Structure formats: structure tokens, C-alpha cells
Amino acid sequence: MATRRGFIGSATGIGTAALLGYSASPSYADVPPVDAGAEAVSQQTARSSMLAVNAGMRTNYATLKAELIKHLSPVVVVQNDAKGGRFTLVTKDGQESTNPVSETFELAKSIAHVPLGIFSVIASYLADKIPNLPNANRIDPHDLVMVAFNDDKSTAWIPPLQAYATRLTTARRQLASAGLPPALATSCGNILTGGLKFINASITAKTFDMASFEAFSGSVYPDIRVNMEHASQAQISGVQTIMKTWRAKVGEAAWADLYCVVLSQWTTSLLNQNTIILKDCMNAAKVATHLIDLPGLEPPVDPIFTALDNLARIVQDNVAAEMVFPKDTKVADALKGQQDLLSDEILNQLGKTTTLKATPSYNTVASGVCPVPH
């Protein structure tokens, strides 16, 4: 019985092509010279015809991407939110979404944000000069000038600060009924009490400054750390549990090729908390290429489509890179990654060396729950 290799090897080029259902590529000798049949047109017309080539490429590229989206599987899309993340599993059978993190995460973070809530009210009324504080050299003077855009002699900050104090007071009075773990209840109480003391003192004196605020925020920092600990525990447990459930549903073979796309804002895109946890729930050999952070300016209108649309581009570029640049692996890697194709050439012409930062090394979550065996 003839093998496929033997069968093709014994056929002529044209015969093999015809039998396999495609046309043989023309010889480069058959291609006419560049100037053959040249048309006399204006420069603008000639340039427009050149640009039309790229327009055609973009149309073909978009068509491929739109079709490829339908075949992406399995994929986990994560929308970072106040609840610890909205997780969506995408497979060939459809989609399912959930918020897997317990409410402890949101509660702990809500109270930990008290100093930031107070800062947001008073910041624009700060004096635009940095006082002699231990961290003075860490504050950009120009940044402070831009943030402190209101008159520091004004008391217009009092009404909104009083309104925020009302929220803190209600939360403080009802805290015992929230059913929190004792340590978290204590830390939340301390933060709320500290915030109210700062607000009351500032309103009574009708003044505040950077030093008085930092004295307050520094005093509740140990309690903020307790809240951060409880929020982190809740998030790790919730994410690992849902990933373990979905892994069993998808099956080991498919899970080994899982893509995870994490949508975030720029301010939380580096070492994003969900990205850190997901790393150990994936095939370790593919984390570098299959765990993708997509930072944006604001949450997209259609997060799932945005994630899959970007992933489709990444996946098709992975294949295109090797086929379009088979003789230059460095340029191929640029097409496959975040580097612009012209970056190296621009650096060369400017006499600079590559300045790309290495892919961040994510903290490792305790293993044993999610990792794929190898």
C-alpha cells in the first residue's frame, strides 16, 4: 500500500497539485517585469492604487478574524470588577458566566477604600506645596499642582465630606450585623472610626493639610492590611474553585490548550490579581503565550466580544508570523507579540538598543489545586 509520502514523491509537481486539488504556483520566470504594461496615470492615482493593496489586506484580515472568533475554544475571559471578577467560559458548546468570589472580597475592599474616598473629596483643596514629610521626595510637585486645582482657603469641601461621613457612620453602626469574621470586623471598625475622627476634626477646624491626612491614613494602614488579607483569601478561593470546576467540565486534553484573557484597566494590568491566580490553573508550558492581559482605558461595552476579537488576532498572528517571516524569527516573534514590527529598525536608526521590558513574572499561588500535570 502506497503511503502519502511515497505517493506524492512519485508524482510530478503539476500532477500532484492537480490530484490534491490546488493549482501549481507559477514560476517566477513567468511574472512580467515591473514596468511591463505600465499605465500613464497621475502620481496620486498610482499611490492610491498602492494604498488599495493594504486596504484589501485589512479586509481579508478582518474577515479571517471574524470567522476565527467562532472557533476559539476553550477560553476563559475575566472582567475585573468590584466583586472580584466576572468569569466567562467559552467553548464550542457555548458560554457560561459567573462571579465566583465571595462577598467578603467586596466588603473588605469597600472599607479599605475609606482613606481614598476621603482623599477624593479633599485633594483638589490641598495647598499646592509639598510640606516637609517623610515621603515628600516621592510626590511629583507638578502632579500635586494639577491635582490641587481649587483654592486651599475654600471650605467648599465640607458639605461633600459631611455626606461621605454619613455613609461611614451608618456602616459603623451596622457593622456588627454584617456577619464578618472577628478580625475583619475589628479592622473595618478601626478604619471607619479613624476616618470619622479625621473628618470631624477637619470640619471642626475648617481646615486640613497633607500632614494631618497622612497621620490618619498611616494610623489605619495595619487595619487596611488585614482587609487586604481577607480579600485576597476570598479571591484565591473563588477563582481556584471555578477553574477547577471548569477544568473537569472541559476535560484534561482541551484544558491543556486553554487561553485566558484578562480585561483590566492600565492601573491594575501589571501583576493583576486574577492573572496571578490563573497562572497556576493553566498548563504551565503555555502560560507565557496563553495567559493574556488586555489593559484598556474603560471597561468595553461588550467585554466578551472585545476579549475574543483580540484573542482571534493574537491566534492568527501566531500562525501568520511563521508563514510570513520564515527567514527571520526575530521579526516573526515581533508579529506574534506586543512589539511593533518597525521597533527594532527604528531603534537601530536612532542608535538605541532594545528597551522592551521582559514579561512580568507572576507570583505563584500555592499549587496543588489547579495545575495541569506534566
Describe the structure.
The chain is of the alpha/beta class and 374 residues long. 53% of the residues lie in helices and 8% in strands. The chain has 16 helices and five strands. It has helices at residues 4-9, 13-20, 43-69, 103-112, 114-122, 141-147, 158-174, 182-205, 210-219, 221-250, 252-255, 273-279, 287-290, 303-324, 329-336, 343-349; strands at 75-79, 86-91, 94-98, 259-265, 291-296. A five-stranded mixed sheet has the order 3-2-1-4-5, with helices on both faces. Strand 2 (86-91) and strand 3 form a beta hairpin. The longest helix has 30 residues, at 221-250. The chain is extended and about 90 Å long. Residues 1-24 and 356-374 have low confidence and may be disordered.
**Rg from C-alpha positions?**
29 Å
How many helices in DSSP terms? Answer: 16
- Class computed from helices, strands and strand pairing: alpha/beta
Question: Whole-number average pLDDT?
Answer: 87
Keywords summarizing the entry:
374 residues; single chain; five-stranded mixed β-sheet; disordered N terminus
Summarize the topology.
Blueprint: H1 4-9, H2 13-20, H3 43-69, E1 75-79, E2 86-91, E3 94-98, H4 103-112, H5 114-122, H6 141-147, H7 158-174, H8 182-205, H9 210-219, H10 221-250, H11 252-255, E4 259-265, H12 273-279, H13 287-290, E5 291-296, H14 303-324, H15 329-336, H16 343-349
Parallel strand pairs: 1-4, 4-5
Antiparallel strand pairs: 1-2, 2-3
Helix pairs in contact: 3-14, 4-10, 5-7, 7-8, 8-10, 10-12, 14-15
